[in-house]
Amino acid sequence: MDIGFLKMNEFTIQLNKLLNVFFLEVGIVSLTLVILFFLGQSIGHSWLLFSFGLGLYIFWHLYHLLQLLKSLSSQQILQASIKFGIWKEIWIQLQLFQQNRHSQKNDLITDLDNYRIFINNIPDAVIIINSKPNEQKTIIEWFNKSAQSTFNLKKKKHIGCHINDIFTELADYNFSTSKNNKKRITIHSPTDQNKIYSLRVTPYHKSFKLLLFRDISRIYWVNKMRKNFIANVSHELRTPLTVISGYLETFETHFKKDKKYLPAIQSMKQQSLRMNHLIQDLLVLSKLESDTGKLKKKKLIDVPEIIGSIIKDTQMLTDNKYQIEANIDNSLMLLGYENEIQSMVSNLINNAIRYTPAGSTIKIAWYSENKNIFFSVNDNGEGIEKQHLQHLTERFYRVDKGRSRSEGGTGLGLSIVKHILNHHNAKLKIKSQIGKGSQFICCFNK
Ligand code: ADP
Known about the structure:
- By secondary structure, this protein is an alpha+beta fold.
- 51% of the residues lie in helices and 18% in strands.
- It is built from 13 helices and 14 strands.
- The chain has helices at 15-43, 46-73, 85-120, 145-151, 155-158, 163-166, 217-254, 262-290, 303-317, 338-354, 386-389, 401-406, 413-423; strands spanning 2-3, 6-7, 125-130, 139-143, 185-188, 196-205, 208-215, 299-301, 323-328, 334-336, 361-369, 372-379, 427-433, 437-445.
- The strands form four sheets. It has a five-stranded antiparallel β-sheet. Strands 9-11-12-14-13 form a five-stranded mixed β-sheet, covered by helices on one side. A two-stranded antiparallel sheet has the order 1-2.
- It starts with a strand and ends with a strand.
- Bound molecules: adenosine-5'-diphosphate.
- The site of adenosine-5'-diphosphate has 21 residues, from helix 10 and helix 13.
């Protein structure tokens, strides 16, 4: 057997060989007893001689059994004291078995040492904890050298400590129920608040769990700076844009009949409107990104009402040019964030309208199936080629940039939808066929 480092040489007692020797011995002894019996006839004591031989044989077995038991109980290396018969074979087999166990034990010790050296040399901090399901405390069992230096841990002081005493941020985390999930937890170092770690919890044996900490401070702070920068720029651009839009409105009324300037003013107005949408979407996105969803409390939302009112607005704005078929389960509510769900529904319905020619049918559904709740928007528009599908939720990814811009798109809608779904532990599935249409399905847990 070879499991990674673990090499185990299997050894089995060779029963066939033992039986062969045993039967040979029984044959020789039987023959000797028969000879003794006949020899005894000549002196008139055949049974006596026979019984004497048999007794001697039984005594011989009992003696060796006793020797073996003595040797086994002494837990020392077995040493055969006999050079023939079944007992010689038993001793040889047991000696081989003992040697094999010994080398297995040595292999295991070497492997264990290798593991220890290996884990000790991992540059990331590793902590092993024990969290028994019916016990409140999660105890630190072991940590590597990197954990010692990173979190200032001391073997004598911290082994046996409650993990939450060191990482207070993990107070709400239930280690005893955590399964092997790929989700990482972002935490601050208890010794330095500027150091950020991505923690992964991996259960590996009964109630034991391996905590692996990866230093993500650089990425974290760069990302934070980027998010803040986008949020600040978007925010700062709002005021000048409002002023420009205001003046453009005035100019438009002033130059109403002027064919020379009016088209330029209207084009500027359209572009400032686009910029306004872009800024709004950027602000929504940076708010969604900075909001981890932990601060707000989820509420029971009347999603059917939200869908109904967005459909009504859409029909009004599009002059009923689209046939909207709604299949809504009116009794189905969702625990979540109302504004975000409203934004998700409106983004997906707007996209269906934007990328589908007038007169088409758009099917909207809100239903539950098995343990999930679904919101789906189905259109019979132009469809999306397969290679684009995985990129659609990236910021500013557009299949046809010109088309998106001319329809008033910002390239941020599906990115916003993805973030909203992340906040709700939900998933987005996109199916599409060129010439047949697209389907956007949001899958929530019940
Ligand atoms: P945009 O503001 O450009 O619509 P989105 O993030 O909402 O940005 O969508 C990204 C891209 O996905 C769009 O530019 C478009 O190419 C494609 N797309 C989204 N929805 C549809 C749809 N229902 N049918 C066809 N293409 C779509």
